[in-house]
Each structure stands twice: as structure tokens, then as C-alpha cells.
Design goal:
- The protein is mainly α and about 60 residues long.
- It has one domain.
- Helix 1 packs across helix 2 and helix 2 packs antiparallel against helix 3.
């Protein structure tokens, strides 16, 4: 069952909010570095880090 765009887990939700704020304040920051820092800052498990990456990485478009 899908829960829409709401990520599971408080740590992941906090990380999404933190990254969104960082990208707004510092648009020059690259997403991979922000994902890594968020993983450390919010003590994300490897599964949570992958979920965070999937949420924030744009889906590839067809050619």
C-alpha cells in the first residue's frame, strides 16, 4: 500500500525537510553531498538513506 509522497520514518522526514532548507539557502550545494551529510546528521540506516535518495532524485525521462 502506497502512502503517497510522505516518506516513512521521522528521521527520513526530518532529513527531507533539512535538505530542502539547505537547497533553498545554498543552491550551489550538490545533492550527493547533502544526502551524505543528512545521513550522518539524522543517523539514517542504509535503507533510510536509499529511501531518501529515491525521494529526492528526479526520475529519468525517456529519450
Amino acid at each position: 500500500m502506497s502512502r503517497g509522497l510522505q516518506p516513512e520514518g521521522e528521521a527520513v522526514r526530518n532529513a527531507v525537510r533539512w535538505i530542502a532548507a539547505q537547497r533553498k539557502e545554498h543552491p550551489e550545494e550538490r545533492l550527493p553531498e547533502l544526502l551524505e551529510e543528512a545521513g550522518l546528521r539524522f543517523d539514517l540506516t542504509p535503507i533510510e538513506q536509499e529511501a531518501l535518495r529515491a525521494i529526492l532524485t528526479p526520475a529519468p525521462t525517456g529519450a
